[in-house]
Amino acid sequence: MEDHDAVHSTASLPWSADPRAQRLLTQLQIAYPIVLLVLFIAAFTIQSILTARNDNDDTIQSDQLGPGGKPLPKKQKKEDTKSQAADFSKTRKLLFIGLQAGVLLSLCGNIALVIVHALVGREDRWWCGQAPTIYLIGSFMVYALLQITLIDTKPSPTSAHLITWSVATVMETILLGASFAVYTHEHRQPKVGDPHGGELEREMTEWEITEVTLDLVRVILLIALGAFYVLFTYLRAATRKRAASDEEERQGLLAGAHQSNGSAEHGSVIGYGATNGKPSGPHHEVPAGWEKPKETPSRSWWEYIRAYGMFIPYIWPYKDRKLQVYFVLCFTIVVIQRGIQIAVPIQAGNITKILAGRDGPIQMPWQAISLYVIFRIFQGSNGLLGAARQVLWIPIEQYSYRELSVAAFEHVHQLSLEFHLGKKTGEVLSALGKGSSLNTFLESITFNVLPMLVDLGLAIIYFLIVFDAYYALVIAVVTFWYIYITIRMAAWRADIRRQATNASREEDAVKNDSMTSYETVKYFNAEEYEFNRYRDAVVKYQKAEYLVTFSLALMNTIQNLVFMAGLIVACFIAAYQVTDGQLEVGKFVTLLTYMTQLQGPLNFFGTFYRMIQNNMINSERMLELFKEQPTVVDAPDAFELPSCEGDLRYNDVHFTYDTRKPALQGLSFRCKPGTSTALVGESGGGKSTVFRLLFRFYNPQSGSLQIDGHEVQNVTIDSLRRHIGVVPQDTVLFNESLMYNLKYARQSATDEEIYAACRAASIHEKILSFPDGYETKVGERGLRLSGGEKQRVAIARTIIKDPRIILLDEATAALDTETEEHIQEALQTLARGRTMLVIAHRLSTITMCDQILVLHEGKVAEKGTHQELLSARGKYAGMWKKQVRAQRAAEEAKILRDKADRLRRESMSSSAIRASGVDAAGVEDSPGSSDEDERAVFASGALIGGEQPQVNGDGTAARLGSLSMSPRGSTGTLIAASMGSRTAEAATGNVSENASIAQRESLRSGAVRSPSPVQEHRD
Question: What gap in Å lies between CA 379 and CA 382, rounded to an integer?
Answer without folding.
Answer: 7
